[in-house]
Amino acid sequence: MTPSNPIPLSGILLALVALVAMFAMGVDPFLAIAVAVVWIGSLFLAVASPPDSPLMAQEQPFTQDNMRDLIEHSSTPLLVTDKDKVALANRAARNLLGSHVVNQDLRVAFRQPKAIKLLLKRKDGATVVKGLVRRRDIWRINRQGIGDGLAVVELINLTAESDISRAHTDFVANASHELRTPLASIIGYVETLRDEGEDLDPKTAAKFHETILKEARRLQSLVSDLMSLSRVEAEKHEEPSEPLDLAPLVERAARDAAGSERADNLRFELEAGHQVRGDAKQLEQLVRNLVDNALKYGASDAPVEVKLVKGAENRMHLIVTDHGEGIAAEHIPHLTRRFYRTDPGRSRASGGTGLGLAIVKHIVERHRGRLDIESEVGKGTSITVRIPLIDEEVEALS
What we know:
Largest sheet: 5 strands, antiparallel
Radius of gyration: 39 Å
Oligomer: single chain
Number of helices: 13
Mean pLDDT: 82
């Protein structure tokens, strides 16, 4: 080891002065000499340069070879570009754009003016493009240079976020429209009663009051369903834990939905003694919504059948069947959408809010179940809800 800088002369002189002083004070000569040697040695070590360390070696630059393994298994589509072409593409990028993208010119690989402008400019940045793979998809493209003409390109899928935003906008617009309709009717009739109440005959006034009450109840039902939908969506990731016997719950909720005037239209076939994990209030609401729909749209002279049986895959099957007009096949995939109606006029006339099956769908999803709708025009509709049973063997081991 050699010092990178000479030992300062002042340090040596100070050590010699100290040595002479110790002799003068009668300090043992060997001890004095030892102190002086240690002093000078410490000065030597202080100015010595440490040996080169492998940890201090310069980092190796990025290359195609050392980038390949680094990006291959990322779930995010990643590409490495070399000047104007795609040098590498990980598995996710190849699945998205095709294996042929490797070694392609950037203009051919992307075919998006905004993306090409970003990548060929060779400056770090980001851009958002539509229709990168499919017509309605949305992607953010991020570029980060890593030297020697290489750059990493990251593809972030924004399609789901866009769909959620669009669904939220549509929901607010539809909800506003649905709320405005009964409100406009209520305000209109109240203003007429206020301005012309004394001139209206009693029958007309009574009819106006009845309409106001009907629209107010419709508004109340809509607000109630909106709040229910909000609560169910807020809890959809919390799996219920309360053990329930569905049979008494189903019968009680179905009779509540029918009321005394429609209770005779119900026909029950309930298999008791099987438990599920569920939220009692939400499951009661599910049954009420299904039975109420069946009674509204079923034939007035035909019963609504409510069946609860143990089915395949260790699930309880709740089946609600009416014998009404049925639903055309093209409507069935859309029935659980918010505010979707096959016959808007009839639905509003019967007091429907257009949210009943949307609420049912979210309750079924929260209970890790499945919802199936079968219908035939002229014969009726059958809705089946499948909810997992409590696994008794697993429960015994836990």
